[in-house]
């Protein structure tokens, strides 16, 4: 039974067995024309990786990744690579624990973050996301709310799609100004940042230039895993300020040696493909599927909550106050439809999450439309 599962990942494992899997945010859409050409070239990329130095492949991947994202001030030597964002988060958590640094973590967010921190002995304190919603009050609200040594944010946030970019540069500037003035370590999960890049309303400014010139102590986490349809072959990036680098690097090398050179080689091609198409392969499928979800669920008991950034997940509020997300989710599984209840995202107060469900959008549009039709049928049958 789903009510006995401990975290969202366990739910996602069950969802992988389900016909209409709308749970995990991993990329399940088909390849674009440009990406199909990369797949056809995989044997050549394999042998190319065999003949290349690991360091050269790492440097090339970092260069194209940060060039795509417009983060041109990043020093390659300040960035460490791992094969999953969870590993980068683990390294950051180990650094926090080793230095007895207490942490305020945004709520809601994906429950993997507080779980990883707790598993290494760091017990996060919640900071409500709405603390960041008013640019003119961010500094004062953080000064009132944060009682820990570090501030850990997710931007854009998963599941809500909120981003400090809604305030232009000012949102990040105010957070960083607060951290500098109050001597706080700033930890930021940017694993959904590609969706801000793909969203024509936003894009990204060079955040690392702001970080490095401000004097703030920081750890920044980025990822490829939620961006391209890579069969879960991926690479995560951990970048930190100069004063933290030696300590973080020593922890990082205790965890792993490197990322597969073959994976780095073909990932770089995917990044280059997105540079060439202006992120269209990422943006178009998410936009199309969000429109399908809104149209199909219009008038149902699920109300779409508009995200700041068009991320690869959709956050819905249950309009009937008598229906709990956990109960609705259990009902949907009987129809072979799997969504995630909001309870786990509200990692400190799960009851607050009973008002919400999350639907993943990174799916083949035709299959997604079929899943949404089935979801609407299941939702309408609840309590009937």
Automatic annotation (TrEMBL):
InterPro entries recorded: Aminotransferase_I/II_large (IPR004839), AspAT/PAT-like (IPR050596), PyrdxlP-dep_Trfase (IPR015424), PyrdxlP-dep_Trfase_major (IPR015421), PyrdxlP-dep_Trfase_small (IPR015422)
Keyword Transferase listed: yes
Which coenzymes or cofactors are required? Answer: pyridoxal 5'-phosphate
Superkingdom of source: Bacteria
- Single annotated GO MF: transaminase activity
Describe the family membership recorded for this protein in Swiss-Prot or TrEMBL. Answer: Belongs to the class-I pyridoxal-phosphate-dependent aminotransferase family.
Put simply, this protein is called Aspartate/tyrosine/aromatic aminotransferase
């Amino acid at each position: 039974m789903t009510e006995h599962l401990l975290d969202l990942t366990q739910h996602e494992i069950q969802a992988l067995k389900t016909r209409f899997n709308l749970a995990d945010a991993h990329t399940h859409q088909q390849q674009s024309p440009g990406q199909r050409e990369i797949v056809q070239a995989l044997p050549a990329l394999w042998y190319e990786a065999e003949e290349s130095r690991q360091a050269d492949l790492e440097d090339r991947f970092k260069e194209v990744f940060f060039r795509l994202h417009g983060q041109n001030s990043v020093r390659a030597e300040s960035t460490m690579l791992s094969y999953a964002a969870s590993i980068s988060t683990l390294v950051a958590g180990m650094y926090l624990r080793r230095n007895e640094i207490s942490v305020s973590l945004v709520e809601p967010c994906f429950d993997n973050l507080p779980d990883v921190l707790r598993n290494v002995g760091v017990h996060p304190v919640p900071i409500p996301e709405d603390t960041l919603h008013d640019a003119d009050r961010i500094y004062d609200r953080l000064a009132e709310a944060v009682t820990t040594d570090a501030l850990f944010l997710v931007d854009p946030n998963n599941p809500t799609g909120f981003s400090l970019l809604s305030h232009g540069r000012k949102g990040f500037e105010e957070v960083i100004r607060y951290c500098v003035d109050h001597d706080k370590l700033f930890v930021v999960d940017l694993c959904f940042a590609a969706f801000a890049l793909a969203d024509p309303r936003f894009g990204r400014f060079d955040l690392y230039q702001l970080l490095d010139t401000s004097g703030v102590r920081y750890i920044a986490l980025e990822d490829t895993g939620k961006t391209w349809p890579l069969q879960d072959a991926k690479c995560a990036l951990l970048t930190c300020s100069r004063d933290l680098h030696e300590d973080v690097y020593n922890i990082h090398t205790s965890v792993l040696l490197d990322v597969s050179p073959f994976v780095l080689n073909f990932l770089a091609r995917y990044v280059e493909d997105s540079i060439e198409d202006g992120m269209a392969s990422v943006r178009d499928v998410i936009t199309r599927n969000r429109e399908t979800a809104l149209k199909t669920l219009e008038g149902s008991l699920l109300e779409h909550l508009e995200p700041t950034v068009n991320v690869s997940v959709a956050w819905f509020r249950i309009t009937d106050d008598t229906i709990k997300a956990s109960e609705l989710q259990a009902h949907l599984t009987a129809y072979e439809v799997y969504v995630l209840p909001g309870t786990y995202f509200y990692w400190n107060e799960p009851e607050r999450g009973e008002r919400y469900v999350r639907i993943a959008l990174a799916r083949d549009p035709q299959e997604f439309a079929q899943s949404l039709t089935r979801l609407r049928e299941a939702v309408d049958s609840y309590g009937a």
